[in-house]
Amino acid sequence: MSEQQKTRISVDIYGQTYNMVGSETTGHMRLVASMVDDKMREIHAHNSQLDIPKLAVLTAVNAVNDYIKVKEQLEILETELKKLKD
């Protein structure tokens, strides 16, 4: 993908402005930023003593955990679908 086709936007995550560059739509990139911001605020609400680096790492850990769960569910559904087709 060429540099001209990349989407560039500024987003606010947990009070900080970040410049995002990617191949997704602006709406998608804003949704991702919003979800990260929401998760950081949720974690902070449960433990206000965390500094920002620890908060960011816990947010990443939560996101990867959610990803793994969804991936496992998808694999189960794909297996069930294959059985139904056979």
From TrEMBL:
It comes from the Bacteria. Keywords: Cell cycle, Cell division, Cytoplasm, Septation. Transmembrane segments: none annotated. Activator of cell division through the inhibition of FtsZ GTPase activity, therefore promoting FtsZ assembly into bundles of protofilaments necessary for the formation of the division Z ring. It is recruited early at mid-cell but it is not essential for cell division. The keyword Cell cycle applies. This is Cell division protein ZapA. It is found in: Cytoplasm. Homodimer. Interacts with FtsZ. InterPro entries: Bac_CellDiv_Activator (IPR053712), Cell_div_ZapA-like (IPR007838), Cell_div_ZapA-like_sf (IPR036192). One of its GO terms (cellular component) is cytosol. Signal peptide: none annotated. It comes from Psychrobacillus soli. GO terms for biological process: division septum assembly; FtsZ-dependent cytokinesis; septin ring assembly. Pfam families: ZapA (PF05164).
